[in-house]
Hints:
The chain is an all-alpha fold.
Amino acid sequence: GGERPISELGWWRALLIGVAQGVAIAPGISRSGMTIAMALLIGMRRDDAARYSFLLSIPAISGAALLELRKVQWAHMPYVSLLIGGVAAAVTGYLALIFLLRLVRKGQLAWFAPYLWVLAAAILYKSFAG
Length: 130
């Protein structure tokens, strides 16, 4: 990470991070991973990079949710189930966000590397082995 605070982001750096988020639409690519990595590459401070990435998720996730919600009315899905699932996801997501921001501040994201390598190997195996 760098030493550039979020207040010095500028429009072209914001554009680069936005493009990184767009690339993450491809299957298997982490949206937050791409945006945090790009923010770090352009010299943003670690905690600001993570915070900015999570803020960028709000319109992306909200837009996807609205698109999916249009389909729900035709699927006759019970709205109570959606509400309970949404609340559970919001609470869990909030707690995970707190945990991840602490890891980012401490520079301990390397703990995820072995997990991601194993996960990637399993996905590749499953994809090619059928």
